[in-house]
Amino acid sequence: MIETDLSHYLINLTSVKEGHYDDIVSKIIDGRIDEITDRLTELATNEENGWNKLVVYLDLRMRGKRLANSNIPNVVSVVDRSDKPTTFVMIASETRPINLVRLIKLLDLSKSLGVNVVLAIVDKYGDVTYYSLEEINLLK
């Protein structure tokens, strides 16, 4: 069963750095890929959606974004200078279905925290497309 209640992830929402990915991305940016080949293989085989998360993490870092661990599976937080989350980036693959209940819960959580939500879709070539999400209410 897929966990849809996100409230228990709030405990460590801010100030926890995404060290695992941060170290890998720093070495990729510095051109030291030979130092992390074992870790990349481990990431691709052992962590669900790990490769897509790394691709999005690298893309956001290359765009100058500061990132932190949101403790919500397949979600990365973009943070400001004070490590306060400004955006939740939900990571998905174009070949796998998106859990809409979980997505709605993330939107509810973000609304209560005043945080934006972006859906990052990674295609089979590793290209990332970002979609800004928000809740709308249609009136009669």
UniProtKB/TrEMBL annotation:
Gene3D superfamilies in the cross-refs: 3.40.1350.10
Cited InterPro entries: tRNA_endonuc-like_dom_sf, tRNA_intron_Endo_cat-like_sf
Molecular function in Gene Ontology: nucleic acid binding
GO biological process: tRNA splicing, via endonucleolytic cleavage and ligation
Protein name as it appears in the record: tRNA splicing endonuclease
Source lineage: Archaea, Thermoproteota, Thermoprotei, Sulfolobales, Sulfolobaceae
